[in-house]
Amino acid sequence: MARATLDERTSNSGFEAAIESSWFRNCVTTLIIINAIVLGVLTYRENINPLIVTVLEVLDRAITYAFVFEIALKLVVFRTQFFRSGWNWFDFTVVGISLVPGSQAFSVLRAMRVLRVLRLLHVVPMMKRITEALLKALPGMGAIVAVLALLTYVYAVMATNMYGNTETEEVLQLFGDLPSSAFSLFQVMTMDGWRFEVVQKVIDDGHPWAWLFFMSFIFIASFAVLNLFIALVVDALAAEQKAATEELIEDIEEDAEAAEEERDEIIRLLSDMKKDIEALKRAAEGRSASTP
């Protein structure tokens, strides 16, 4: 069998062509969706007929074996090339977790069977494109997280010094020490109950101008820094879409060039056929003229 490659646009064997075909990918997608539904229904096993639970567990096991067969087939076809793709490592890991025995010691790993649903992220082309764009944005996200952490640390130190020296139990729980202050500021940054659960308690504790401190933090952390995440993700998606568009244009140009070459070849063949016909015609006329 010819050596397979991870390039989905070329195939060096029948097995590789089958694995990279749309029908095979659609079958895997269907199994993943069915498995996701089964795992969701099994969370209600206490309220379901035991016979139905047994059937669903058998179906889940059968789908697991189907995934194992898929991975084994890819290993046979791609061999060492299989492990050069991060997505293949992901598939190999989540399917391997599914084979862990269901004992109490491995109950957490067994619960991670649902990770198989995440295989849709690369089986579906659009999801794969979005996921890869997000992964490419991770280095920039790391820098933003560092800025956000530094900003939260500075404000947490200030909040602890300003509001931590209090006898009010609720405020002491919010800003009594540095970790508590950082956690409270994180809640303010997400704007989840920030007014009544955090700011109002500080104001009622004798700090009427505390809202200025928290509003400045919200404007900087929530409205400025957090929006950088959105800008970074949008930029990554735009770059990925641009790359996909350029790749599509290249494919169209290659197809157009191939079509033009085929057209030129057909024209050449027709021209040769025309010459042959004319030669035969002249030969036939010559024989007719020489016949008495």
Report a brief summary of the structure.
By secondary structure, the chain is mainly α. It has helices spanning 14-19, 22-42, 50-78, 86-98, 107-111, 120-123, 125-163, 169-175, 178-190, 194-204, 210-290. Helix 3 (50-78) packs antiparallel against helix 4 and helix 9 (178-190) crosses helix 10 (194-204).
Helix and strand layout, with pairings?
Blueprint (H helix, E strand, L loop, with lengths): L13 H6 L2 H21 L7 H29 L7 H13 L8 H5 L8 H4 L1 H39 L5 H7 L2 H13 L3 H11 L5 H81 L2
Q: What would you note in describing this structure?
A:
The chain is mainly alpha-helical and 292 residues long. The protein has a domain at 14-123: Voltage-gated potassium channels. Chain C (Four Helix Bundle (Hemerythrin (Met), subunit A)). 78% of the residues lie in helices and 0% in strands.
Helix percentage: over 70%
Number of helices: 11
Element string (H = helix, E = strand) = HHHHHHHHHHH
CATH architecture of the domain at 14-123: Up-down Bundle
- Based on helices, strands and strand pairing, what is the structural class? mainly alpha
The description of the largest β-sheet is: none
Q: What is the CATH H-level superfamily of the domain at 14-123?
A: Voltage-gated potassium channels. Chain C
In the CATH hierarchy, the third-tier topology of the domain at 14-123 is known as: Four Helix Bundle (Hemerythrin (Met), subunit A)
Shape: elongated
